User: Fold this.
Amino acid sequence: MWKNYSAGYFKNNRAMMAFIMTVAFFAGTLISFISHYFYNLFEDYVYRSYLKTGTYEVTVSTAFVIYTVIMILTVISLVLMIYHTFAVSMSGRIHHLGVLKSIGATSGQLKSVLIQETMGICCLPVLLGNFLGVGMAYLIVSIIIDSTETARTYKVNFVFGPGVLLLSAAISFFTIGVSAWIPARKISRISVMDAIFNRENDMPCKIKKFRLFSALFGIEGELARKSLYTRRKSLHTAGAALFLAVMGFYVFMNTEKVSALSVQETYFNRYKDVWDYMVTFQGGVTEKLSALERAKETEGISSCILYGRGNIYVSAVKEDFSKELLELGGPESISGSIIKQEGEDYLLEIPVIVLDDDSFKKYAGNYMGENGNAGKYNGKNDDAGNHNMGNNPVLGQGVILVNRIWDSLHSSRFEREVLPFLEQSEEGTLELSAIVRTEEKEVEKKEDSIAEKEAVKIMGYTDEGPALREELSWDRPTIVMSISCYKGLHMSFLDRESFLTVMTDSREEDQEVESVLQTLLSEGDEMEGRVDAERSDESMRSGLRLIVGIVAVVLSCVGLSNVFSVALGQIVQRKREFARYLSIGLSPKGMKKILYIEALEISLKPILISILFNIPFVIWILKQSGVTVEAYLQNMPFYLIFLFSFGIVFVVCLTYYIGGRKILSSDLVEVLKDERICG
Assistant:
C-alpha cells in the first residue's frame, strides 16, 4: 500500500521530486569535491614529507584536521539547507498524511515512509553527484598545479582514491538521511486534526511594521519585508552562509591585495636596481673571491657584489653616544641593542657588512664625491647633497659607520626619523672585540669570553647602507668594511654564509648568465632570480586566490541553495499568500515587485553589511602595511569582488523569477477558494 501511495504522489508531483533530486545531487557533488580536494592536499603533504625525511610515515597533518572541520561544517550546513527542502515537501502533503493517520497509520509508519521515499529518489542523484565531484576536484587541482608550477621543485599529479569515493558517498547518504529524518519526525507527531486542516505552520503572533520599506517601496515593500519576517527561520541558514561567504571573500581579497602591494613596493620594486640574481654560498666571504672574479668576467653581467655579514662587539662609554640620543634618555630609551656593564661602560652588539674591495670603494665613493670631503652629518644630507664620509678610504685601514638609529618615540615605522647613534669626530675609532666560540656553541657573553680587543679607524659616517638585498637594523648602527680590512683584524666574527648579487645588462632573465652562475654552485649553495621570484610569488598568490575563491563559492552555494529551496519549495504556501494579495486588489505587477524586493533584500543585505565591516578593516591593514590609500584604490580587487557579488544577486533574482512564474501562472482564484474550504 505504501509503495503505491508513494508512487502515486510522485507521479502527480514530478516538479517537487525533481527539485529534491537536484538538492541531493548538489549535496553529493559538494561532499565528494571537498573530500577529493583535501585528499590530494594530504597526498602532497605526505610526498613532501617523504622528500625531506625519506619515509612515508607522517603524523596527522594540518590538511586532515582542516578537512575534518570543513566536512563537519559542510554536513551541518547541508543538513540545515536540505532539511528546509524536505520539510517544505512533506508539509505540502500534510493534509494527505492527516487523512492516512485518521484511518489508522501510526506515527512510526508515516516517519518510515517519508524517509524511505526520500532515500529512494535521492540514491541515484547522490551517486552521480559523487562522480561529478571527482571531476570537479580533478579540474580545480589541475589548475592549481599549473599555476604553482614555477614555485615547486617536484612534480605533482591528481590522485584518485576509491576509498575516498566510498567515504564521500557514505557521508552524502548520512547527510540526506538526517535531513529527511528531522522533518519526518516532526510531521509524524502532528495531531490528526492539525494535519487534516493543515495547521502545521506556526505564524508569528505579532508582525513588526517596516515603515522604512513602506516609505521606499510602497505597500509592496512592506508586504515583502513582512513575508520575509514570517519565513525568517527558514532563511537563517541562507543569510548566515551568504554573509560568511561574502565577508570572508571580501576580507581575503583585500588582505591579499594589500599584502601583494606591500611586497611589491618594499621588496621587488625596492631591490629591482640592486639584484637580478643572488647566489648564497655555504662558505666564508674570503673563500669565494674566485667566484666573484669568474662572475665579473662573464658577458652580460654589468655589476656584482660579494659580501658577508656577522656581528661584532664595540666598547663605548656614555660620552660616545650622540647628544641627540642622550637628550632622549640614552640608548636604553629607544634601543634594544645595548648590553650595559659596570658604571657608564657599555658593550654594543653591532651588525657588520663585509664587502669585496671594489664594491667597498664604490660604496664610499658614491657618498664622498671627487674630493672625499663632505659636510658634518646631522641625520640628513648637507647642502651639497653629500654625507660626512671623512677622508678618502684606504682599504684595510678603517671602516664606514652607518651611524643611525630610529627615533621610535617620535615617529612611526612608516615615516621613520633617524638620529645619529654615536658622537662623530674626525679621528673617531671603534674598539672591536669578538666572542670566543667553542665547537659546541657560543659561550655566554662574559668578560672572560671576549677576544682580544682591536681598534679600527672610522673613515666616515653615513645614514645609508650599501645597495644590497639587506634590510639594515634600525635599532643600532651598522659597520661596513672591506675584505682587506676584515683580513687585517685577525678576528673571526662572520657567518659561514656569503652572498653574491648580480646585475645583468638586460635587467631580465639571461640564460647564459644563469648557466655561468650555476657552475659556481657547490653542494648546499642556492641561486635565486629576481624575475623568477616575482613570478613565483604571483603564481603562489594566484593559487591561493583560487583556493579561497573556491571555498567562498562553496559556502555561498550553501546559502544560495537554501534560498533556492525556500523560494521554490514553498510554492504551495506562497500561492495561498499571493491569492490573499489578489483578494485585496493587488495587481500581478505589484506581486512581481514584492518578489523582486525580497530577492534584493536577501542578496544585498550580506553584501552591504560586509562592505561596512570591510571599510574600517581595509583602513586598518593599510596603516599596518604602510601602503597608501591611493595605491590601494588604483589596484583594489574591484572586478573580482564585483563579479562575486553580482553572481550572488543574479542567482537569487533568477531563483525568485522562476518561483514567481510558477506562482503567478497558477489559478490563484482556485487556490483562494480551496483555502476558504480548508479553513
About this structure: The chain has three domains: 1-200, 209-273+530-679, 309-495.
